[in-house]
Amino acid sequence: MAEGRTQLDGSSSSPLRARSHHPGDVGREDVTVVFWADMFLVFIVALCTLLQLPRIYARLSNPSERRYGHFLHHSLPSASTSTASQTTVSDHSQSELVRTSGSDEKVVRSAPPTHIPAWESLLRPFVPFLRTHFVDRIHLGGTLFCAFYFGVLLYAGLYQTSVFTNPLRAGYVAVSQIPWIVVLASKNNIISLLLGIGWDHLNYIHRFAGRLLTIAANVHVIGFVYKWTMAGSFTKHISQARYAWGVVAIVCIDVLLLFSLAIWRLRAYNIFYLSHIIAFILFLVAVCLHMRAAVPWVIAGASVYVADILLRCIKTHICTARIHCIPELCATSVEIPSLTSGWRAGQHVRIRVVSMSMGWLGWSETHPFTIASASRGVAQQGLVLLCKDTGRWTRRLQELSRQSKMDGSDMTVPVMVEGPYGGPGDTMLSSFSGVLLVVGGSGISYGLAAAEELIRKAAEGTSSVTVLDLVWCVRYSDCLTPMLPIFTSLLAQSPSAGVAFQITVFHTRAEIPGRTFRAYDLPAGLTLLTGHPSIPIRLRDVVSRTQAAGFLPGDAGKPRGVLAGVCGPMELGEDVRRAIDEIEPDVQRAVGGVELLEEIYSL
Q1: Which of 45, 291, 578, 598 lies deepest, with the highest CB count within 10 Å?
Q2: Do the beta carbons of residue 334 and residue 213 sit within 8 Å?
Q3: Is residue 238 in some structural domain?
Q4: What is the pLDDT confidence band of residue 132, given thresholds at 50, 70 and 90?
Q5: For 248-286, how does the pLDDT look when each residue is reduced to its tens digit (9 = 90+)?
Q6: Could you tell me if residue 87 is inside a domain?
Q7: CA–CA separation, 87 vs 168, rounded Å?
Q8: Domains in the chain: how many in total?
């Protein structure tokens, strides 16, 4: 609730007010301080972007990398999935057609991407410490950044003033965070693009910034309520329209905080989503009517929000999907054969099943899932999702697929697909010499897409990966059954692509009644074991095999590094982090460095 330019009692106890020569000087100085705090945050983003520039340039300079990860592409379903058909597609993809003068075309073979080590490698002695998980999935480095963020806003709120004498400053601090919160919440945000990391990895900063906005807004309100109450003028002020709109704004922001808690996000997502949309739009309107100085920040935030909505509309496709039940994984497979290209391994899409069979409101719900197939895949045709049964919506989808299974054929349903989002950012898996993929449960979506993409790129000559291991941890051995044909296909294609590919499946629990153990006829390269994997042993094996493997002519006989990608429970991610930290520095240098790529679980 913004006060006038002077205190109600006419005093000038604040240092700012004591130095002001005009009633408007106080408001202008508050705006100036908050503006430069925002500019300092912009400088931090620019500095991180500068450190990321080599990787950004390396990715954008490679044709096989820059074309993917932005928009899904429509195409007709493949007429055949035979090996011959797949080989034809692979052979055709090995080169690019570049039109020259006249009607002649010159065939130019693509090259593997340039490998640029992550700038975090410079902080190698401190990486294990910074990667320590502190709060839930937020590591210590992220926690320290949040503390730094809070310090910047606290400095802006207290610089040469006091919240007790000048609560107006807290109001400016609150509205200054509107653009940042919107940018960090948008699926197509510029910050994640500049920093080369997925949108989902910045979501915790969005939540933290939202809490800081709420704290600043409530400090602003409480300060003026206290002053008006002490002066006996509360009723006089609150009856004015601008202050009534201030009440609306603070109610909206507190509602946003309440319904952003994890209990609502995880158990009642629709309530969380609708409350965010309604309360945030009403908040923007109310804060403009309450505080005219907030209009520039609101316009900036609203512009980002509208741009994000437009991009999301452009990224949305209406398609027909085939669904079938996978009881061994307690999941439903959603296959969209008309979308065959445009995404990168690790990215996810938001899907809406437009069918009344999903319930009165289920047809309107949108849910995110990691893509389980590779763009222009060689083992799976089209975009494939594995929707694990984790809630009411996925349970209805599985029941729908079970009905179709009883009829003896897969059911087709109309769907709206939006994406792709997230993913590895500027980290190019194909630029490394060795890759270890460690996934748990439904994280196999990420593992399948990554392995299939790397094998396809190796066949095209656009990958430097020579050693590839996939470790999958599941509860029961029969989880392997639905994946066995895909694993067999990938293993059969890897030798011709020049990739030493191995798959190891660990099942951690004994069989239960009703789930009969079966003896598998496993292809070469696929192993089924009991218990939990020893990640340090697996990683060291990949490192040693990568050192012993052959490399590209331009690499001077040196490996390009090893990437450890993980998608699974938090404990699995901790095991991979510890395994990386246990490798001696001289071994890491000899192999070109060992990097970690952690994907968000259960998207």
Answers
A1: 291
A2: no
A3: yes
A4: confident
A5: 999 999 999 999 888 888 788 788 888 999 999 999 999
A6: no
A7: 68
A8: 2
- Looking at residue 320, what is its pLDDT? 93
What pLDDT sits at residue 358? 84
State the DSSP code for 600: P
Token pair recorded at residue 374: 């590779």
Residue 5 lies in a domain: no
3-state secondary structure 452-515: HHHHHHHHHCCCCCCEEEEEEEECCHHHHHHHHHHHHHHHHHHHHHCCEEEEEEEECCCCCCCC
Contact 354, 427 (CB under 8 A): no
Do 385 and 297 lie in one domain? The reply is no
Percent of the chain with pLDDT over 70: 83
Residue 263 has a pLDDT of 86
With 0-12 / 13-18 / 19 or more C-beta atoms within 10 angstroms meaning exposed / middle / buried, residue 325 is buried
Q: Is 412 helix (H, G, I), strand (E, B) or coil?
A: strand
Torsion angle of C-alpha atoms 252, 253, 256, 262, degrees rounded to 10 = -150
The first and second tokens of residue 252, run together, are 């909206």
520 shares its domain with 559: yes
d(CA 46, CA 52): 10
Half-sphere exposure of 486 (CA within 13 A, CB side): 21
Nearest alpha-carbon partner for 213 in 159, 306, 309, 294:
294
Could you tell me the residue range of the domain that residue 514 belongs to?
Answer: 316-598
Same domain, 404 and 442: yes
Distance CA 303, CA 301 (A): 5
Q: How far is CA 486 from CA 36, 53, 501, in A?
A: 55, 37, 13
Amino acid at 166: N
What residue has token string 């945050």?
Answer: 41
